[in-house]
Write the structure tokens for this entry.
Amino acid sequence: MKNILKQIFFFSFFFLMISCDNSSKENTDFTTLFEKSNGTETPEYKDVITYYKKLSEAYNQISLFSFGQTDSGEPLHLAVYNSEGIFNVDEIKNSLKNRILINNGIHPGESDGIDASMMLLRDIVQNDSLQEKYKNSIICVIPVYNIGGSLNRNSHSRANQNGPKEYGFRGNARNYDLNRDFIKQDTKNAAAFAAIFHAVNPDVFVDNHVSNGADYQYAITHLFTQHNKLGGNLGMFLQNEMQSQIEESLEKKDIIITPYVNVWGTTPEAGFSQFFDSPRYSTGYTTLFNTLGLMVETHMLKPYKIRVEQTYELLFSVFDVTEEKSKKIKELRLNASDKILAKKTYPIQFKVDKEAYRDLSFKGYEGEIIDSKVTNGKRLFYDRNKPFEKVVKYYDEFVATKEITIPKAYILQQGWHNVIDRLKNNHIEFTRFKKDTIITVEVNHIKDFKTSKTPYEGHYLHSKTTVTSTLAKINFKKGDIYIDTNQNGVRYLIETLEAAATDSFFNWNFFDTVLQKKEGYSAYVFEDVAAQILAEKPAIKKAFENKLTSDEDFAKNPRMQLDFIYKNSPYYEDAHLRLPVFKIF
Ligand SMILES: [Zn+2]
């Protein structure tokens, strides 16, 4: 056994070292550029990867893996700390240790986490007491997620930000904002992220950012995934235990932190609500697999050095709380999918509860509206000579506004390969029909929706979608896919396949072809057919006459009248407005 392990070890070691020269911990200097520059600079992408390669060569506890490809052409890397090392990436998700995933550089201009993570893994492996402390944790770090953006270095695209000197750009190699791409997976980055996410199956996920917006005293803020949306005992644990314990841990290190200041164009004193992270965002996505998610938002106007140092300390606080609550977190996650299925219904839309707020003691700066020296208008000015601590209203309770009944299974026709690819990337289990099969299923038709007039992340996003439901016998073909909802990915299935859910595949335009009729008719020809239909089908005739008397617009519009008969006739095509996702209860 020992020999086999040794062989695997050498093979992995060789594999990981393949593009590096031989070096050892004695002659490699692991001081980072951030440290050498006294907290003013962040390294280039290639130097970040070289650093982790050297770290993995020097320390058996660090492994460096690469996953797939990103839009830049470069693979996505994952650096892993484990006290015994990791030889095969599959060991991570099967481990009983705490599994923590840290994502950096999704917005490369917000590089704080990139630098904090480099120092953090180094400090753990170089410090025996830290190694002892985190021997029950596997700490996984994506060094830089948005590689294309990171290669696009500049000094100006973060117009309001106080350092570092140079940094990458927010858009990826194809100008996507990766923190909107977790569900739609337009980018190769998002597919590679999903591969990492499912290889790690993290108990806790941290995504490092820098905020924009209001000015206040805090250098760091936390944006936990919305707890009502996370739901159940896991949501309560996040809100009532994890959040406050991380806050307390930081307080002991003299770091003050507050919830993400979700304030735009006004000042925080007016009160503010928690950010709602739907599944397009990193923590909204990780919630779909019952991971405790947290975005860290440092404050853009604070010096880079302080932001990175506080991000570093926050990450250690997250490790400590995870270590302390390890057993509970494992239990809550293990049961989370079963609890969701047992409830039978699932909320797909939320709104902030304006009645429920809590008093938040907030350390801000007095804001005033003064004359602009640039434009002929007014401007907001925060006076840093006037710090205050005031109680502000913080709205962090959300209530469900729409729920669906969880079906036993979804059926998807096999032609929708772009959807099937995403199900596979997210480890959704399904079977295929072995022969053509007629089943009575619930069919959803799109009743109404709005479409954004401006492009958003490569899409004309739909919203306010509603559907009608009917039962029908559908002839499914050999190879169509049957997706049992009794699986770990049940939330992912609901949030993507239910058209009315915020970030559904329908809303992200995956099914837009059903919105357009492919055939039609000439009125002068159909007139005679319509007359015959009314003569032969009393039910259609009755519905037609009812509409004539009850709907004023309809009664005045002969074109609508003829169309009504067409749409209720066998001539009207089945596919129009019909979702290709069917449900079995
Ligand atoms: Zn960001």
Q: What stands out?
A: Residues 21 and 81 are 21 Å apart (CA to CA).
